[in-house]
From TrEMBL:
GO terms, molecular function: sequence-specific DNA binding; transposase activity
Protein name: Transposase IS200-like domain-containing protein
Taxonomy of the source species: Bacteria, Pseudomonadati, Bacteroidota, Saprospiria, Saprospirales
GO biological process, one term: DNA transposition
Length: 105
């Protein structure tokens, strides 16, 4: 989208080890990164790169973001559908697969 980004990600892999056993509280507090920190890093790195590309300075992203927690398979499906069809709804393409910035294959 030209003026915003949709990201669907899971932080659940931070709570288990390589064998899918839940981490202890000590290990979890060491390794877990909250969503706010993940978003801060994504926004910071992408803003820097985009500003360099556009040869500009200053704030790129809005301070806040809209977070929605996925609680079940149906919610996941609805959110994924919304993200994929957002460029279609905006009139940028006629089919979601035509949108060049869709990572989902």
């Amino acid at each position: 989208m030209p003026n915003h980004v949709h990201v669907l990600l899971s932080l659940g892999n931070q709570t288990t080890d390589v064998d899918n056993f839940f981490l202890t509280d000590d290990a979890l507090s060491f390794s877990y990164q909250p969503l706010s920190e993940v978003m801060r890093r994504i926004k910071g790195a992408s803003a820097r790169d985009i500003n360099l590309y556009l040869d500009r300075r200053g704030t790129f992203w809005q301070k806040d973001s809209y977070d929605h927690y996925v609680r079940d398979a149906k919610a996941f499906e609805n959110i994924l559908y919304y993200i994929l069809y957002n460029p279609v709804k905006a009139g940028l393409v006629t089919e979601w697969r035509e949108y060049p910035f869709t990572y989902y294959a």
